[in-house]
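Sequence only, no structure available. Ideas?
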Amino acid sequence: MAEKLNAVKGMNDILPPESARWEWLEATVRDLMGRYAYRNVRTPILEHTALFVRGIGEVTDIVEKEMYSFHDRSDKYGDNDHLTLRPENTAGLVRAVIEHNMLYDGGKRLWYIGPMFRREKPQRGRFRQFHQIGAEALGFAGPDVDAELILLANALWKRIGLTDVRLELNSLGQPAERAQHRAQLIAHFEKHADKLDDDGKRRLHSNPLRILDTKNPAMKEVVESAPKLIDFLGAESLAHFDGLKAILDANGVAYTINPRLVRGLDYYNLSVFEFVTDRLGSQGTVCAGGRYDDLIVQIGGKPAPAVGWAMGVERVLDLMKEQGTHIPLPVPDVYAVVPDAAAMPVVLRTLQQLREAGVRVQMHAATVDGLGSFKSQFKRADNSGATYALIFGADELARGEVTLKALRDGSGAQTSRTLAEVATWATTLQSPAPNI
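Reply:
I predicted one. Tokens follow.
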């Protein structure tokens, strides 16, 4: 017998009934994005490695340690590309916007969904293949769109019933302001170099802002006493931040200012934000984003402002489980009980008519052991969650009828239905569409 093969560690299968929870969340997101006039974009999973080195930043953990990168096979001239499985999708989306000149007629509101890849130790809420949903608004400079994106995420939490999520805000200002802060930050950490761990020492001159994001409790004191970026912001940056807060206040969105919130990617400026929870241990960030006005230029486009966020699908679903959120699982309206295989031509014709009328139908099908007994079929009908069993018995078919049996109301009531008039009674079997 051939050796059994398993999935790659940290890259998980998503199977029924769990996949139904994913579909439910995706449908909810799709509906909400439409209400905010965001349009779907689908970019390749593979991109040129240079896109992420240039866009994310060469000294970030993602580029230094986590990307799945490789040289493609050489062509007949010996040339090959250096490619990477996307570790995030903002850079790819911006690349697509530039490549297809999408901003020629004004700003765009876009959203995406799909798998991302990072080579790190698999743990709860962090996988090597994980999934993100993101919303990005490009070509809009004001804090109103920053606020709109936060309101969109906040509306999603309400729709899916998440309550234990809080919003944290900060402003990273503009590059010149960050440069002043950076110099003071380096001076501060140099004075306390003996308190820095290996990561802190490595980042001291290459990316000192990331030291503020450390999870090492031994560095808490030196980080807390470090200069705060908000103290270096000029009038325009502060006005942008105040404008964002004013809109959130007007909409009753609670938030806290976290001066240590810096985000892990190099391309952010001005507003940054995270929705966090305490329910998922160290992986407490559920959704995060901010403004990245310089990224389009870094990737080779004409200057244009942009802002967006991404949320981890696995983490959101995990949090919903933690909170005990009920998600309706899909069940058929009707389960077709078929005692005799000779009836299959009539059965399939009838079931197709029902499906065309919008009825969700599951047909009992033969296994290697045949159709099974009448009793075993009814057991499967009951286990399916269907509201009705539709029985295609020989006597009924001889009369041009089928028997409809109620499975859920406790009555077990049976009625006959005429096969020649399926369209007239099909809609009585239809359950309301699940709320999304």
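DSSP finds 15 helices and 16 strands in the chain.
Hope that gets you unstuck.
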